[in-house]
Amino acid sequence: MSGGVDSSVAGALLLRAGHQVVGVTMKLWGGDSDTGCCSVSDVDDARRVAQQLDIDHLVFNFGDDFNAHVVEPYVRDHALGVTPNPCIECNRHVKFDRLLVRADQLGFDAVATGHHARIGRAANGSFSLERGADNAKDQSYVVHMLDQAALGRTLFPVGDIDKTEVRRLASEMGLRTASKPDSQDVCFITSTGGRQTFLGDRISFRQGRVVDTSGSALGKVEAVEMITIGQRRGIGLPGGGPKRYVVDVDVPNGTVVVGDDDDLFRTTMVVERATWIEAPVDGAVLVQCSAHGVPQPATIANDIAGKVAGGSVRVTWNEPQRRIAPGQSVVFYDLADKCVLGGGTATR
Amino acid sequence: MRPGAVEAMLPFFSERFANPSGSHRFARDARRAVDEARDQVAEVLGVSPGEVVFTGCGTEADNTAILGVGGLAVCGAAEHPAVLHPTEHRGGIVVGTDTAGHIDLDQLADVLSPDVAIVSVMAVNNEVGTITDLAAVSRLVRSLAPGALLHTDAVQAVCWLDLRQIAPLVDLMSFSAHKFGGPKGVGVLTIRDGVKLAPLISGGGQERERRSGTHNVAGIAALTSALVETDHQRISENARLAGLRDRLIDGLSGAIEGVVETVQRDRKTAGSAHVCLDGIESESLLFLLDQADVCASAASACASGAMEPSHVLAAMGVEHSLAMGALRMTLGHTTTVDDIERAIDVVASSVQHLRRVAVARP
Fold first, then answer.
1. Is the CB of A58 less than 8 angstroms away from the CB of B307?
2. Per the CB 3.0–4.6 Å rule, which of A208, A292, A324, B274 could disulfide with A346?
3. Residues near B64 by Cβ (< 8 Å), separated by ≥ 6?
4. Domain presence at residue A199
């Protein structure tokens, strides 16, 4: 229970379904925060909702795990010019690993969250991960790393209803979180300081040369670690003239390459650290590269490290697509755009 | 709360509900209650009545001592946050501890100088129960920083130590009623005659300009009742609870492996049964204990309610992984032999369960 409306209603729906429910809020981040699920006021909201539902509420301190698996890699990746997705790493290592293990130890059958996604079960007993009923709020992308064992012990009670209905239920039940705005941002980055301050306190930024695709110098940036592929603003170039985009970032050499839109397009990419909902998949799929990105058709082949989880996958786009920043999560869906098949991390 | 303390409060919520600072007959009656309470408190604490200042809590007493003196403060790393934070806030010096959480006397001697304005050393550690050798601390402070005041946070000492023996060693002592069977929201700071402190709370000057605010008469009456009763029972309760504490720790050590007694028994209070359980996460254990109606604590909770790693165990040099398995069990005047037997059963079976599922996981 993050203190948001989705997990509040998730708890209420579980109770309606007859489950024995205990609310848990994870304390993950001890530093400055203004939006995330670790602020005291959000924990207050979660606790007050649990009191309204008349269930126990616990706070688990997983700060060490969060630091080791989310914050430190976030800083390390940026120092290498990789743009990570910390919320996905938190799901992978904390919510659906550390918390599941804890739940197991304490005798719980399942962990439920407020994610908008659905878990199905086939006749042969295997679990599928499907998009949430509310297409606009679908979060299957951020939970794509779940495997059969995790899916079998996970519940997404609000996955079957849309957000409007979630809020309607919350206000019908008089839950104090009914009209609380959705959180959008990374919980350990403050709105005042932003990513720049957070990273600047932890790594020493290096200056970068800005060059065009032929290598000619165009200018410089103060912090090459802050530059992301596809970026248009803040790359130290004068306004006017043709639109120019960052098409490559080489942090070790301190170089930012800019080009026009065409220079961003690629026909293939390699995805590493692949995970699969069931078995590794080859062939025609839809590929989604950001939380609310439009899925694009492609063919995937496990031709690099064999058909193994954790291996690499080559993605060949049906039509050339803009380059995906390394570190971003790339998620494969079936052609019906309903079920997650697997996913991984974009490489350079 | 002690039933006598509850009883002592009640008249002040109804027929004796007057402000003791007023001048009419009802005010005089309330005033008399505060005056008599002050006399009784002074007797148990080994000070004169004029040296007793009633406060809103132990934290307020600690803050008044540290912040009211001004100038350089020195304290130990295992102090309660009510001492540690104001000391750090004022740019004071924090001295390390030995492996029992007792302030390191050599390190203390190194930092004592004529520049030091106040030294604060707790009488009993709130997490692990270690008793400070305040006579030794006092000798050091008086010889190396003769101008400094010596304060002790004695919040955890009341049930276990004779405060009349501590009072002559120090200039300032802090107490909180809820630690000895009184209500929350009332405490005491004793201030040796002649010591000048700036008040933390200014206003009507009710506590002779050392603390302002309308007297919490009901709280003061209940604090006094609980303090006097605790003092009467102190010697017999020490003997009774030491026996139960020994049974608890010996019973646990006999039932399960990996019970690490954090501080040896002859250095701590009779009611403290603090242990670290090898390979166990306190958060998991506390949940299972709570499910079985055994209520315990690990370290201390932050504002969100999450358990924070103990700064006391860190100061003692306890390895982080072992400190994560801290279990802070405390015995008091209501503890019975049946409680102890049940605690042994439930803690042992919960620990065994957690170790079994940890082993079963690939």
1. no
2. A324
3. B53, B55, B189, B197, B199, B200, B210, B211
4. no
Please give, rounded to a whole number of angstroms, the shortest distance from the CA of B46 to a CA of chain A: 42
CB contact under 8 A, B284 and A59: no
Query: Is A106 in contact with B361 (Cβ distance < 8 A)?
Result: no
**B305 closest CB neighbour out of A43, A102, A105:** A43
With beta carbons less than 8 A apart as the criterion, state whether B118 and B69 touch: yes
Please state the φ and ψ torsions of residue B260, each to the nearest 5 degrees.
-105, 115
ipTM above 0.95, yes or no: no
pLDDT digits (tens, 9 = 90+) for A302-334: 866 555 556 899 999 999 999 999 999 999 999
Same domain flag for A246 and A341: no
B97 secondary structure, DSSP code: B
Q: Are residues A140 and A211 in the same domain?
A: no
Q: Which residues of A290-324 are buried (b: 16+ CB within 10 A; e: fewer)?
A: ebeeebbebebebeeeeeeeebbbebebeeebebb
CA distance B314 to chain A (A): 15
Residues A215 and A289 in one domain: no
Among A residues 68-127, those touching chain B with beta carbons less than 8 Å apart: 101-102, 104-106
Domain range for A304: 265-346
Residue A247 phi/psi, 5-degree rounding, is -110, -15
The total domain count for chain B is: 2
Indicate yes or no: CB of B357 within 8 angstroms of CB of A40.
Answer: no
Chain B positions in Cβ-Cβ contact with residue A106 (cut-off 8 Å) = 284, 287-288
The answer on pLDDT for A236 being more than 80 is no
A41 Cβ under 8 Å from any chain B Cβ: no
CB A171 within 8 A of CB A23: no
pLDDT at B360: 62
- Residues B2-34 as b or e (16 or more Cβ within 10 Å = b): beebeebbebbeeebebebeeeeeeeebbbebb
Domain span including residue B301: 234-360
Structure tokens at B330: 């405390």
From the centroid of its chain, how far is CA A290? 8
Please give the Cα distance from B78 to B99 (Å, whole number).
11
Q: Which residues of A touch B357 (CB under 8 A)?
A: 104-105
Contact status of A25 with chain B (Cβ, < 8 Å): yes
Q: Give the end of a domain, one of B230, B256, B273.
A: B230
Give the pLDDT confidence score for residue A199 in this predicted structure.
93
Q: How many whole angstroms separate alpha carbon A164 and alpha carbon B192?
A: 65
Per DSSP, the three-state class of B338 is helix
Tens-digit pLDDT profile for residues B96-120: 999 999 999 999 999 999 999 999 9
Is A193 contained in some domain?
no
Inter-chain touch A106–B304, beta carbons under 8 Å: no
Q: How many CB atoms lie within 10 A of CB B265?
A: 15
Rounded Cα distance, B233 and B224, in Å: 14
- A43 and B304 in contact by Cβ < 8 A? yes
| pLDDT tens by residue, B228-242 | 999 999 999 999 999
Q: Is A289 a catalytic residue?
A: no
Query: CA-CA distance, B310 to B298, in Å (whole number)?
Result: 8
Distance in angstroms (rounded) separating the CA atoms of residues B152 and B179:
16
